[in-house]
Design brief:
- The protein is α+β, with helices and mostly antiparallel strands.
- It has a domain of 46 residues: Double Stranded RNA Binding Domain (2-Layer Sandwich).
- 30% of the residues lie in helices and 17% in strands.
- It contains one helix and three strands, in the order βββα.
- Strands 1-2-3 form a three-stranded antiparallel beta sheet, covered by helices on one side.
- A hairpin with a 7-residue loop joins β2 and β3.
- The chain starts with 6 loop residues before the first strand and ends in a 19-residue tail after the last helix.
Length: 71
């Protein structure tokens, strides 16, 4: 089991998401729950495609953090 970071952004029509560890792996959804579900499926599909092509499945390597700055 691997954990991949996903970045979720609110859009004018819902949400979009991508994984910095998996170039080109993106998804959308009307709600946060939907985009997370769709992104999980997109990652599974993306990894399956890499395996079928005989390509290396990249290990997760990104992380997130917040920094505080004066407003």
């Amino acid at each position: 089991m691997r954990k991949y970071l996903i970045v979720i952004e609110e859009t004018g029509t819902g949400y979009s998401a991508y994984s910095p560890d998996l170039e080109g792996c993106v998804s959308t959804g009307r709600t946060r729950e939907e985009v997370e579900k769709n992104m999980r499926e997109a990652i599974e599909f993306h990894l399956e495609g890499l395996r079928l092509e005989g390509l290396e499945v990249p290990a997760p390597h990104t992380y997130s953090a917040y920094v505080e700055v004066p407003a």
